[in-house]
Amino acid sequence: MMFANCFKDYPEIRENIAICVKNANQYDWSQNARDNQRLPDGNWKNWMILAGRGFGKTRTGAESVRQLVADKGFNRIALIGQTIDETRSVMVEGVSGILSIYPPDAPNFPVFEYSKRRIRWPNGAIAQLFGADRYDCLRGPQFDLAWIDEFAKFRYPERLYEQLMFSLRLGDFPRCIITTTPRANPFLKDLIDEKTTVTTYGTTFDNAKNLPKSFLDYVQKKYGNSTLGRQELYAELLLDNKKALWQRPNIRYKTPHELSRIIIAVDPAVTYNASSDETGIIVAGRDADGVAFVLEDVSGQYHPHAWGQLVVEKFHHYGADRIVAEVNQGGDLVEEVIRSFDPVIPYSGVRATRGKFVRAEPISALYEQNRVFHTQVFNKLEEQMCNFVPGECGKSPDRMDALVWGMTELFKSEMTPVVRAWR
C-alpha cells in the first residue's frame, strides 16, 4: 500500500488500487490458508480433512489440487462427488471450486470441457469427473491423484474407495485427498485408522472470520450442545455401538433452572503413572421435579493429592450437598485423601457389590425416560457411555462409573430394592 500513498491526493485512484490489492489477495492461498488447510508433509496416501460445515473444506481440496498440479507434477486426477452433477456444481464450478480459485487472467487457468466431463490445464494435466453412485466407472482409468468430496454421505463408500485404490497406480506415490463432514460410518473410522492416512480435524468456528456472525450465533445457539451439532459443527465422528447400554439419541441437553441437590461423584484410580486409569469425577444435580443434570466432568489422570483437592474445590464451588466415592480398591484411604482438605465435608463411601451392567442399567433407563440431561457436550464421558458393552470393554470406563455412582445417589430413594416373600 506504500505505492498507493503516492496518490494520497487522488482518492479515486487510491480506492481502485485498494480494490485491486484485495482482489489479488483473495487468490493468494499461501496467505489465506490456515495451518489446518495446508498440505501435510510426508509420504501419506490419504489426507482426510474431517471438518464441520463452513470450515472451508472445498476450498482446501481445490487449492490442494491446484498446488499439486502446478508444483508437484501430478497430471491425472480423479474428482469424485456423490453424483456427477455435485462434482461439477461444487468441486468444479462452485464458489470454492477449482475454476473459482484462479485469477481470471491467470496464465495457468484451467479449461472445463463440459462434454468430456474433464478439466484440462495448460501444462497438460487432466482432471476427470466422477459420481460415487457409479463407482464402476473407475474401472479402467488410472490416476496419480484423487480428490473426494463429502465422502461420508456416499451410499457405498467402501465400494467406491476400493475401485479408486485400484485406479491410483500412476507415479511414484499416488495421493488421495478426502474432504468431508463426518457421519456415523465404521468404514470412515477404519480409513482414519490406516497408518498411511493423515487426518486433519477442524470445526465450523475455525473459519469464523469468513462466515456471517448471524449464522454462527444461530447454529451455536440451536445446535451447539446437540448430537447433530457435534457432528455437523465440530466434526465429531459419532459411532454408536448397538450393543452398548447407552445410545446417543438418548443423551439430551438442557440447562436446569434450580437444583434441590448437588453431589460430586468420584471413581478414584489407585495408582498414578502413565498407564494408570483416570479418576472419574462427575458433578451432578437434581431438581424438585426429579430430573437430574450432569453439570461438569473434570475426570482425568491425577495424583491422589491433586484429585482430592479438585473434588473438594468443586464441592465448595457448586455448594454441593455430598461427595460420593467408590471405595472398592482405595478403602479408607479415599476418605482420608478427601478429608485431608476438609475434615468435616459430607462424604459417603460406596462399594460395588454388583457388576457394572447391573449398576448402570437403571441409570441408562433414566436417560431413556428423559430424566437425565447433560448441560453441555461431554465428549469423553459420552464416548465411554456409548461404547460400554458388558463383558466386552477393556479399559475401565471411569467417567461412566462416576456418573453411575452419582445418579445412583441422586435417585437412591427410587432404587431401593423391594424384598418380596415367596410362598
How would you state the average pLDDT, rounded? 87
SS-derived structural category:
alpha/beta
Question: What radius of gyration results from the CA coordinates?
Answer: 28 Å
Helix content range of the residues, please? 25-40%
* Shape descriptor: elongated
What would you give as the CATH superfamily of the largest domain? P-loop containing nucleotide triphosphate hydrolases
In whole angstroms, how far apart are the ends? 96 Å
Number of H/I helices: 14
- Largest beta sheet: strand ordering: 3-4-5-2-6-7-1-8
Give a verbal description of the structure.
- It is a single chain.
- With 423 residues, the chain is of the alpha/beta class.
- The chain folds into two domains: 23-215, Rossmann fold (3-Layer(aba) Sandwich); 248-413, Nucleotidyltransferase, domain 5 (2-Layer Sandwich).
- 33% of the residues lie in helices and 17% in strands.
- It has 14 helices and 14 strands.
- It has helices at 2-5, 11-26, 29-32, 57-71, 84-92, 157-167, 186-193, 213-223, 227-232, 304-318, 332-339, 356-368, 379-385, 398-410; strands at residues 46-51, 76-81, 111-113, 118-120, 126-131, 145-149, 175-180, 197-202, 261-267, 280-286, 292-297, 322-326, 347-350, 372-374.
- The strands form two sheets. Strands 3-4-5-2-6-7-1-8 form an eight-stranded mixed beta sheet, with helices on both faces. Strands 13-12-9-10-11-14 form a six-stranded mixed beta sheet.
- Strand 10 and strand 11 form a beta hairpin.
- Helix 10 crosses helix 11 and helix 12 packs across helix 14.
- The longest helix is centred in the N-terminal third of the chain and has 16 residues, at 11-26.
- The relative contact order is 0.10.
- The model is unreliable at 1-7, 16-22 and 417-423 (pLDDT under 50).
